[in-house]
Amino acid sequence: MRCSMFCSHISPHLNLSPMIIMKRFSAPISSYVSPRAQAIAEPAARVGFLGIGIMGSPMAHNLLKAGVDLTVWNRTKTKCDPLISLGAKYKPSPEEVAASCDVTFAMLADPQSAVDVAFGKHGAANGMGPGKGYVDVSTVDGDTSKLISGHIKSTGALFLEAPVSGSKKPAEDGQLIFLTAGDKTLYETVGSLLDIMGKSKFYLGDVGNGAAMKLVVNMIMGSMMASFSEGLLLCEKVGLDPDVLVKVVSQGAINAPMYSTKGPSMIQSLYPTAFPLKHQQKDLRLALELAESVSQSTPIAAAANELYKVAKSHGLSDQDFSAVIEALKSKIQHSENK
Amino acid sequence: MEVGFLGLGIMGKAMSINLLRHGFKVTVWNRTFSKCNELVEHGASVGETPAAVVKKCKYTIAMLSDPSAALSVVFDKDGVLEHINGRCYIDMSTVDADTSSKISEAINAKGGYFLEAPVSGSKKPAEDGQLIILAAGDKALYDEVLPVFDVLGKKSFFLGEVGNGAKMKLVVNMIMGSMMNAFSEGLTLAERSGLSPETLLDVLDLGAMSNGMFKLKGPAMLKNSYPPAFPLKHQQKDMRLALALGDENAVSMPVSAAANEAFKKARSMGLGDLDFSAVHETLKAPDHSS
Q: Which domain of life is it from (chain B) (predicted)?
C-alpha cells in the first residue's frame, strides 16, 4: 500500500497525516522520501497561518485556494476577514491556532514580532507538542531563529525556519523561493505546501542557515537598489533621460528584472509598496551584524544602509524600498497618507 | 562598405573581426603594430598611422582604452586630424564628456564629421555582435553608419548632442561597478557564514535580482579566477569619471564612492589587468587571497 510505504519513512514520533502532494519535489538536496510516495489518499493536515500582512495574506490565500484546511490569526483581526469569507477558520491567539493545527506557519514583520508570536503571551509554543510542526517564514537574524527553535522544540514539536525571497507579486503568484533550515523531517512533510506558495525551495541545514542566506540575498538587493538609484539620479542631473537609462540597462549584462519593474515608477517619484523600506533597512542592519560577527568588511552595504536610514528618518518607512532614491535628493519627498 | 579601425585591444580586435566576417573592407591600425597581424589573416588591410587610415577610408572607427589614448590618436603627429576633411570619425572609446567634446570640436573645425558611440558590453558581446551602442553627435552620420552598428551590436541609441553618449556610458558602468561590489560582499559573507556560495548563486538567479553579469562571473569568482573581459583598471577609470560627473553636478553618490575605493584598492594590489570582478580579492583576509 503506497500510503504505508510513505508513512514508514516518517520519524515515528511525528503523527502528522501525510500532506496531499501536489507537485514533485524540486529541492536540489536529494529527497528523503521515496519518489513513489505520491498521490496520498489520506486527508490533508490542518494548517495554521499567523500573520496576515502584505506577504501572509496572499500566501494564506493560495493555500486556501488549493483546498488546504486553514486557520488564521492576525494581531489586527480585520485583516483576516477576506480569508474568513473564503472559508478560512479563525482563532483569537497564536496559541489557539497552534493547538488546533498540525502545522503552523508564521509570517511576521521582524524579530520582535516573530518572538512574541512564537513564545510570548498566548504564543504558539503554548499550543505546540509532539506530532506538530512550526514553520517560521519571517525574516529574522540567526540568533532569533535559534531562540524560537529552542522554545518550539522544547515542547516536543518540530521546527523549520523558512524565510522567503520574493515580495508581494511573487507571493500572489505562488512564485516565492523558500530558504529553509532546521528539521529535515518537517521540511519533507510540508514540501507540498511550500510548492503551493512557491516556485522553488532549498534545504540549507542547521537553523540559522536559512536566516543567513536570506539576509545575504537582501543585503545584495538593498545595495543594488541604492546603486541603481544613484544612477537614475545622476542621469537626470546631467540632462539625460532616465527612461533611456532603464532601457539601456535592461538590454545589457546588468539586466535585473527588479530594475525594469521599479525603474519607471521611481522616475515618477512613485513607490507603491511591494517590500516596505523599513523591512529592507532591517535586513541590511541584520546583514551588517552578521558580517561583523564573522569580521567581514562590507563598505557598500554599509553605505547603502545609511541611505535607507535617511529615507526612514524622512517618513518613507512604509513606502516601497525603492523610495531610497529620495534619500539622495536635496529636497526629499515626505510620506503621503495612503 | 569600407571602414577604418583604430585600436585592436580586447574590444577592437573582436569588433573588427566581426566587421570583416560580415563582408566589410577594414583597414586597421594599432599602436603596437604586431596586433595587426591577426587581423590581416582575417582579410584586413593595414594603415601605418591613424592619418593614413583616415586618408583611405570615408568612415573611421576608434576603440581606445582611455581619454589619453583617444586624444593622442586624434591630436598627435600623423593623427586623425591631418586628413579628416570631408571624412567621418566615430569614437567608440569610453571617455569623459569633455574629452569627447574636445575631439568633436577639432574634427568639425577641420571639416570632418563626428559621432561619439561608446558601447555597453565587453569581450563576448563584442565577439557576438551583441553590444549596446550609445551614440551622440552628428545625427546624419549616425543614420549613415547604422549598417555598421547593426553588425557590431544588438541595439543602438541616439542620445542627442556630443557628451550624452559618454555620460550615459559612465552612468551604466557606475551602476555596474557598484553591483559587482555588492555581489562580491554577498558571496564573501555567504562563505564566511558557512553557507554555500554556489547555492547563493542559484537563489539569486531565480529572483528579481538575476542578471547576466552575476550569472556569467559568479562561478569564476568563486574559483578566484578573473580572466579579463573588462580590465579592472578601465572599470576604475569609469567609476572615477562618473564620480567626477557627479561632483560637477553636486549629486550624492555614497555607494559608488565606496565602490570606487574598492577598485582603487584592487589596483594597488596589482589586479588592474585582471577582469574587474577581481575586486572580489579585496574582501579576502590576507591568508585567503590567491
A: Eukaryota
